């Protein structure tokens, strides 16, 4: 068996073991504690179908809904089209299973009425969750061994992967229709891109193509907008060989190329007589609140900024264990006074970029702040590799990870 096949199997089993165990977590006591529908698998097992999922599924079923005025998912059209591309084949498979008697009609009848015609799209989106999280695990493994320069220990990696697949984000969103699995993939992809641009000059030659690709990804999930500052970092690395005026011209070109897919999408909507609608900005004020810096008196804006920063700070305790793990691992290395792997400037820089981005969103949820967790785990991994913890230390880390997972299973919530 090829290593990659074995790895895919192991990571799939890890995800299934972690996420199916959440079915047996305590059920919500009242409907006020979640947005959506709690689906009972048995009298003692179930999970929440998030309220956002219904619009994703209906839009995947009828993609023309994206062209309607003020369509809720209009800012993320490519994720909906991915849902269509996966959902229709799964729907046909479900229909075949029902026709062949392999999927009892009684089982489908137990679903809430509005979900029955959308079952194939529901399953399709869950498969997308699986693919995104699997991609995050594979990328985490690559970055782990890359940052530790081959000094990484398999047991340490295994423990860190448990933290990636077992947390309040996967608990609430893996089995539902949502985009939260990108919480883990996006920061890892950004780090991979930053390292490639730093260490592989030929990647910097491909910056225009990467800008267009990044703009396409931004139509899948909004946080892919952070690809642009990473690309500008790659351009900045060329400063010693390129004159400043040319550098500025290239930067403007990258920004325009990155914006091109969105501009084309807006143009298509205009041809349909529809004004582009960004639900996240309109409903939650994501990022647009920053316009107040020049639209209102400075004291008023500073008061609003202080309020928003306090709201963001209130989400940080949710990732407190990971912050502590990174800090403790760093402290162990500094006491060891050993030489370590190459500079961590890209990793630290991305942590700062994400902090600024999350603080500036204007919409604050613990699940969003979890974007910092994969990078914090890599900080801890890199520091631990500078002073190998040995089999006993690695075993203790694995035990801590399993204890963390057990706590996630037995704890109450979150549900959405």
UniProtKB/TrEMBL annotation:
TM spans (from-to): 78-99, 119-143, 181-198, 210-235, 247-268, 312-332, 344-362, 392-410
Keyword Signal annotated: yes
Signal peptide coordinates: 1-23
Domain of life: Bacteria
Key word Thylakoid present: no
Keywords tagged on the record: Membrane, Signal, Transmembrane, Transmembrane helix
Protein's name according to its UniProt entry: Glycosyltransferase RgtA/B/C/D-like domain-containing protein
Lineage of origin: Bacteria, Pseudomonadati, Bacteroidota, Cytophagia, Cytophagales
């Amino acid at each position: 068996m090829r290593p990659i096949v074995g790895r895919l199997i192991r990571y799939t089993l890890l995800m299934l073991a972690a996420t199916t165990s959440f079915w047996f977590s305590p059920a919500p006591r009242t409907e006020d504690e979640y947005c959506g529908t709690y689906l009972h698998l048995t009298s003692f097992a179930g999970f929440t179908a998030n309220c956002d999922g219904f619009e994703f599924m209906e839009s995947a079923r009828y993609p023309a809904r994206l062209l309607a005025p003020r369509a809720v998912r209009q800012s993320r059209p490519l994720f909906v089209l991915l849902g269509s591309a996966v959902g229709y084949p799964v729907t046909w498979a479900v229909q075949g299973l029902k026709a062949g008697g392999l999927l009892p009609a009684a089982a489908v009848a137990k679903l809430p009425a509005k979900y029955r015609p959308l079952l194939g799209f529901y399953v399709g989106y869950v498969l997308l969750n699986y693919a995104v999280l699997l991609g995050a695990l594979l990328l985490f493994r690559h970055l782990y061994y890359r940052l530790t320069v081959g000094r990484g220990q398999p047991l340490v990696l295994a423990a860190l992967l448990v933290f990636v697949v077992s947390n309040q984000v996967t608990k609430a969103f893996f089995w539902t229709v949502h985009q939260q699995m990108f919480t883990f993939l996006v920061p890892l992809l950004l780090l991979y891109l930053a390292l490639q641009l730093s260490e592989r000059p030929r990647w910097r030659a491909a910056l225009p193509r990467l800008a267009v690709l990044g703009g396409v990804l931004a139509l899948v999930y909004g946080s892919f907008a952070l690809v642009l500052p990473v690309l500008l970092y790659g351009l900045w690395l060329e400063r010693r060989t390129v004159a400043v005026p040319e550098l500025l011209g290239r930067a403007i070109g990258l920004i325009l190329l990155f914006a091109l897919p969105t501009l084309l999408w807006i143009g298509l909507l205009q041809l349909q007589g529809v004004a582009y609608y960004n639900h996240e900005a309109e409903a939650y004020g994501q990022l647009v609140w920053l316009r107040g810096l020049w639209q209102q008196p400075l004291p008023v804006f500073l008061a609003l900024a202080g309020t928003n920063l306090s709201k963001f700070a209130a989400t940080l305790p949710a990732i407190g264990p990971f912050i502590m793990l990174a800090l403790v691992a760093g402290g162990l290395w500094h006491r060891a006074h050993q030489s370590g792997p190459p500079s961590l400037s890209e990793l630290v820089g991305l942590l700062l970029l994400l902090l600024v981005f999350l603080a500036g969103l204007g919409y604050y949820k613990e699940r969003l702040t979890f974007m910092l967790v994969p990078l914090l785990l890599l900080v801890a991994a890199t520091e631990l590799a500078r002073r190998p913890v040995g089999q006993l230390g690695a075993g203790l880390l694995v035990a801590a990870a399993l204890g963390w997972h057990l706590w996630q299973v037995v704890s109450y919530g979150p549900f959405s």
